[in-house]
Each structure stands twice: as structure tokens, then as C-alpha cells.
Model the fold of this input.
Amino acid sequence: MDFEKGHIYHIYNQGNNRQKIFFNRENYLFFLSKIKKHILPYADIFAWCLMPNHFHLMVLVNKIEIRSHNSQGVTWSHPLTKPRSLNNSIGIMLRSYTRAINKQEKRSGSLFRETTKAECLTCTKESPPSWFMNNGTAQINISLPEKQYPQLCFNYIHLNPVRAGLVKNIDDWEFSSAKDYFGLRDGKIINNNKANEFLNINQIRSSND
Done:
């Protein structure tokens, strides 16, 4: 994954062989704490969704690497500290979570797929992300892809639990940022104000009708 500062990315991974990665509510909450620690120092999070066997993050990258950060996500630097990239931090997050789940479930081996995907939604020089294609044909005619791809991804992430049949309404699923945008929870992960600069967040409300 080659991240570029100032661009929006869709980051996602799933369980190895599509296996479950979350086994109880505490697992979801634990993973969210990992996101705060390992992602927030580098990026503003616009959307997130944790599903039983995969996860989605939509982020605006602010920093490619930092020297270090503490458990509260506050960055600091020291001339003797080796920089850590966002790529490395994502890897550390997944390995740390895997160790905890392996211990909990008395299992061993990889929990996630080897490669975490990160598709740039605002890098117009790249091909459109795969979920906007249907049998090789673009589903919509996009005149301003740098604006519309982020909106489509934002809606897509929040609709995941409904499409999977886990809940009837977007805001019924506890483990996504939809509840924060519906005003049902004061989430500390998303940057609502920053997201409003790039997205029409009211679209997920209308898609819930």
C-alpha cells in the first residue's frame, strides 16, 4: 500500500478463508481501540464498519509516517526514534489483534488475509475501485470521480450490515459509524466536521428510508 498525504482511502481486510474475526461484542470494542491507537495518529476517519468476518475504514490521510504515538493517539517525535509508517502501523494493529484472538479462541495461525487492501478514492489517475463495476461495466456515469467515488464508498460502507441481512436499518448496527452520523452516539473515532467538507452525509439517512 502506497499512501499519499491528502487523499481519501478505503482500507479493508477480511478473515483468512472468510473466517470470523469477531466472536463477541468485546472483540469489536477491542478492535476499535486498536483503530484509535494505530490509525487516528495518521488520518481522519470518515467511515468505519466492523462485520463478523471483515472490516472497512474510509480515511483521509494526513501523515504518511510519524516518529511515535502514545496510547491516546497523541503524536510526538524524538531524533532517536525510528519513524513508523501508516502501512507499518496497520500491520502492527492486525498482528496485535490476531495474537489476542488466537489466545482467546485457543487457535494459531493467521486471522486476516495476508494483504490489506487500500484503494484511493481521490486519485483520479487510478482505475475506479472494483465495487463500482458490474460484470466489467461501470454502474454509473461519473463526471467528477474525485467527488463521487468517496460518496459512493461512504454509502457502501454503511450499507454493509443491511446488505448482509444482519439488520433492517443502517443505524441498527452497533459496529459502524452510522450511529454517529444519525446522532444516536457521540463517537470519538470519526471526524464529522472534516467529513462534511468532502461528503453529503445526509445521503446515508435517505438510503435508510
Notes: Residues 127-144 have pLDDT under 50 and may be disordered. The two ends are 36 Å apart (CA to CA). The first helix runs from residue 25 to 38.
